[in-house]
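Fold this sequence, please.
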Amino acid sequence: MLISINWVRDFVDLDGINIDELIHKFSLSTAEVENEIFYKGSDLSGVVVAEIKSVEEHPKSKKLHLLKVDAGESELVDVVCGAPNVRVGMKTAFAKLGAQIGDITIAPRDLAGFTSHGMCCSEKELGISDENDGIMEITDDAAVGTDIKSLYEIDDIIFEVDNKSLTNRPDLWGHYGIAREIATLAGRPLKKIETADLSVYNDLPKVDIKIEDELCKRYSGIRFENITRKVSPVNMRIRLFYCGMRAINYLADLTNYLMLEMGQPMHAFDSRKVEKIRVKRFDKPFEFTTLDGVSRHIDENTLMICNGDTPVAIAGIMGGLDSEIVDDTTSLTLESANFDAVSIRKSSSRLSHRTDASMRYEKSLDPEMTTVAAARFVKLLSDYDNGVKVTSSLTDEYVQKFDKVTLNFDKKFVDRYTGIEISNETIVNTLTSLGFGVKLEDDDFTVDVPTWRATKDVTIKADIIEEITRIYGYDNFDVNTAVAPLYPVRMFEEKNVEEQIKDILVKRYSMHEVHSYIWAYADEYKKLGIEVEENVKLSGAANPNIETIRRSMIPTQLCQVKSNVSFDSEFGIFEIGRVVDGLDEKGLCREKKMLGITLFSKTADTETLYFRLVNMISVMMDDIRHKGLSYKAIEPDHAYIHPKNYNAVICDGTEIGRIGLVYPTVLKKIDKKANVVFAELEIDAVVGTANQGIKYQETSKFPSIDVDLTFISEKYAPIKEAIEAVNSELIRNVALTGTYTDEQGKAITVRLSFVHPERTLTKEEVMEIADRIIGILKEQGIELKG
């Protein structure tokens, strides 16, 4: 949110105060301020009020005009101007020779054969609005030659407050709330906001208002007639522009101005189209066109403002197109209301439409503010349009109030929490400046929380401590070592396993850890030819690209690999993240935490890369759980998976994950000359695998005998199973030493290490066991290579 220091000065005297230091103090004590501070008008000089005395058509151009301009000097100035709205007698902003507008210094310039000795400026060129349809027209009474910066509030200091830091501070969503904080920090009094006395209209007829739904806490309304002003005052438009809003028309601008000033959203209806205000929800969905011309689907949970039974606005979000203020509007009905915060947030999400009004309502605004804001509106409307007539009393339907919050504590409580000595006088002054009611008897405090802080912010005594200490200044605290007992905390097993996995993959295999969101990014998937699989979707997603939650992490990692193929010829990435596999029987998401690993290489062939990944996860499980893995061929369960060499990873007879290759068409879109393999393991399954521990065995004093056996086989699994089937205690170790392919087919070589703890083995004993293994495999059609 952008904050104007000029606006703050309306409520706090800041003369003699270093504004940059004050903003820094605000950032430390109240809400985070973004790094850059904008000094508006600092790059503008030499621009004055000037009157156009004559206008002639340019003889060689249909767009250009030859002007003579009175800029308050002894002679008229010749100017060439292309603006369509120039006319004799018009006053405008004129940049004299030598004037500075941003990075431009005004100098004589030849335009189509004529020299221009200055420039008539648009509001956009001056940096005070986006209006660029013509040169600025000055309607205020100002003498020619008057410096425009003395006429309007162009010089200003703007700083931006991070919206996230205001989530629990609904009172800070307007300049008056910011001014209260700044007044406290500066030690200056806060001026009371000027409002109209609405009691003088009590005898006028009421507005027909009825709240028919509990989602509306309060609704205040008042009617006006004889509104003649169409364009907002320049200073109002400048403040709106500096704070990120565009000028629309006088009435719309006034409601936006008050929203930025007080934090209270308001809406102006054309009174010709709104007679009976009803606040309610509808039983059946329907389509409704909002002010921006978009047709929106309204369901039965969305609160609406109606003219009788006809919807005219989405409560707390945006008005309807049919009841908007138009050029011939002379009467209006003002809405100043308070709605349920959760309802507004949900409706805004469902509609995928978040507005400045809904952002504020979501924060639980103070319902006491509706009538104050209406009184402020009447004050400003009357000041800027003298002929305005109020035609109703302030009609106020107040159906749900927040409970009053009163907190009691003593000085010892403050001392114990803060650890420092803060005087009673400082405590009282601080809380009083912030708007709290404070009573002090001896060392006992009774604090009444103001309504604008009681909606969800200050509710317990600890909140009061925060108010005291943040204004006192955390940087004023003495640095002392805290004395407190420290107890060792055992890390959760899941977290311990995750840390072990990360250490192994990074330290041993130089893998790169990545982080991603849980969404299936449709546009990124599309680039690889991967369809987004049907799964749980986010209702009312603002961006259809991220409405579906992913079932697997691998497509996400393939997109990440695609983005990095130009940086290295070979790399690996991994992430421990979450996926959702549909809904369970209770309708809740089946959420899983997974380990995704993807290897990319332009140099290694598919087989080498595949077995490199097999080795990684085997070593990982051996280190973490001291258990071996087996693999079982399965059918692909995703379209991006190659049908060959897709295997379940099995430990202790339980599937803990899957390993495979990327489908050729997907691989081609990642890189035509590379290979990619992946594995995805379920963390809960890894954690749930019992730790076998390390078993120590005495080394035999006698020599071992190694026997190499080479079999003609496409797979290693049958060989492993045959070795396990003989169940010989003399086999101390089994190692896969190599694979190759010749005219007989694929050959796999295993090395069996035999040893006896008490004697030297004979060749006959060793070969008897080897022959049994050969025999088991021969029965399965797997021959020993000759």
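The two ends are 80 Å apart (CA to CA). The longest helix spans residues 606-625.
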